[in-house]
Design goal:
The structure is a single chain. This protein has 393 residues and is of the alpha+beta class. It has 3 domains: 2-237, no CATH class; 247-325, Alpha-Beta Plaits (2-Layer Sandwich); 332-392, Ubiquitin-like (UB roll) (Roll), CATH 3.10.20.300. The chain has 12 helices and 18 strands. The chain has helices at 14-23, 28-36, 74-82, 88-109, 118-121, 124-139, 169-177, 194-203, 264-274, 305-315, 363-373, 377-392, and strands at 2-7, 45-53, 56-64, 144-147, 150-152, 156-159, 162-165, 182-184, 204-206, 212-220, 230-237, 250-257, 279-286, 292-301, 322-325, 332-340, 343-352, 355-361. The strands form 6 sheets. The protein has a 5-stranded mixed β-sheet with strand order 9-4-1-11-10. It has a 4-stranded antiparallel β-sheet with strand order 13-14-12-15, covered by helices on one side. A hairpin with a 2-residue loop joins β6 (156-159) and β7 (162-165). The mean pLDDT is 88.
Length: 393
């Protein structure tokens, strides 16, 4: 399994995390293509340079954005993500990060999530950071992310709401939800930003994994401190065995519904995936009094059970649900970019005991290429499979 460890001894921000992905091998063109796929009206430029922080070389990413008059809410950002040409995995990852970020901002300011404005959820550069993190982890084939304890300094930070104490209230709320370990560091500076915290709290497990190191990436922070202000991303491999999820860590949530508008199910499914669901399914059933109904089922991590349970109670007509601990056997997944006559796309590989036993092109990318080239979807699938077979010969 391909994993990565975020060594955040000097903290983490969205641009530090993204710069470390680029330094570890994420092509800048792949990142640019992904940002362009959002279809934002604003022109965004990405400038990657090599710099030094103390005695250490690092990559510095500058996100150059125009002043924007778009006051987007969380729903606007989720609509941009879901309407983009990004693959489903990237969409779900980015949506989960933004949802956590917005919920934390709403809680600390005592406002409903739907009232949180664009500058609170994240400016354009934060949108690039979050989407870029999702694109980078997917493109590099990172299947599991880990992170070190996070440092916290003291002092204050200027925000849209005026002067706030450090760690910033939203950052602290995000890290509290993830039960993230914190380590004090003597610094009068913001070492962990809300965007950086949201990326790790949503996607990472806090702990040091055993691995064989294959690559490293060094992302530079913007401040100059008494030590090298960088974040290190260490990429490696774990033993090539199909993992078995610990039953204590996975749960299955189910509920029977017979009185809800069927148009709502698609909306609820999207919300569940954004909240961290591993899988969501709908099964037609016959309920009491011979009423046709629907079984709504969710597979999720134990740590997400409470949030997903509350979401189901809020967004559906059910009065309760069943929860069972479960285990899962999984094949390893890898992602590979292939070049076809119609353009580049991503292919998902299914790996068992070190052998690739299946390959499936990413559906959304195939649909995009079929539309752009005015050919059938089946033709794009054939081209992708041919390109992959040719690579393996």
């Amino acid at each position: 399994m391909k994993i990565a460890y975020a060594d955040c001894f000097s903290g983490v921000s969205g641009d530090m995390f993204l710069a470390s992905l680029l330094d570890a091998g994420l092509p800048l063109d792949v990142l640019r293509e992904g940002i362009d796929a959002l279809g934002l009206p604003e022109k965004i430029e990405l400038k990657l340079t090599e710099t030094h922080k103390g005695a250490l070389r690092a990559s510095d990413l500058e996100v150059i954005v125009p002043h924007s008059h778009h006051h987007r809410h969380l729903s606007d950002i989720l609509a941009i993500i879901n309407g983009s040409r990004l693959n489903d995995s990237v969409k779900q990852t980015a949506s989960r990060v933004f949802t956590l970020l917005a919920e934390a901002e709403a809680l600390v300011h005592g406002e409903p999530v739907e009232h949180i404005h664009f500058h609170e959820v994240g400016a354009l550069d934060s949108i690039v950071d979050v989407i870029g993190a999702a694109i980078g982890l997917d493109a590099l084939g990172i299947q599991k992310l880990y992170a070190s304890p996070l440092p916290y300094g003291s002092g204050t930070v200027e925000s849209a709401h005026g002067l706030l104490p450090l760690p910033a209230p939203a950052t602290l709320e995000i890290l509290t939800r993830a039960n993230a370990p914190l380590s004090p560091l003597q610094a009068d500076a913001e070492l962990v930003t809300p965007t950086g915290a949201a990326i790790l709290a949503t996607l990472a497990e806090f702990g040091w994994p055993a691995m064989s190191v294959t690559a490293t990436g060094i992302g530079a922070g913007k401040r100059d401190l008494a030590w090298p202000n960088v974040m290190r991303l260490i990429i490696g491999e774990t033993p090539d065995k199909a993992p078995v999820e610990d039953p204590a860590e996975m749960v299955q949530i189910e509920t029977n519904i017979d009185d809800m508008n069927p148009q709502f199910y698609g909306y609820v499914m999207d919300k569940l995936f954004a909240a961290g669901a591993k899988d969501v399914y709908l099964i037609p059933i016959q309920m009491k009094k011979n009423r046709p109904g629907t079984l709504l089922g969710v597979i999720c991590l134990r740590r997400d059970e409470a949030a997903i349970g509350e979401l189901i109670l809020r967004e559906t007509t059910t009065l309760g649900m069943r929860v069972l601990p479960i285990g899962r056997h999984e094949a390893l997944r890898e992602f590979r970019k292939v070049e076809t006559r119609y353009g580049n796309l991503t292919v998902k590989l299914k790996v068992l005991n070190g052998e690739v036993i299946q390959s499936v092109p990413e559906y959304d990318e195939c649909v995009r290429l079929a539309a752009e080239n005015r050919v059938s979807l089946a033709e794009i699938y054939r081209a992708a499979n041919h390109a992959l077979t040719g690579e393996e010969k």
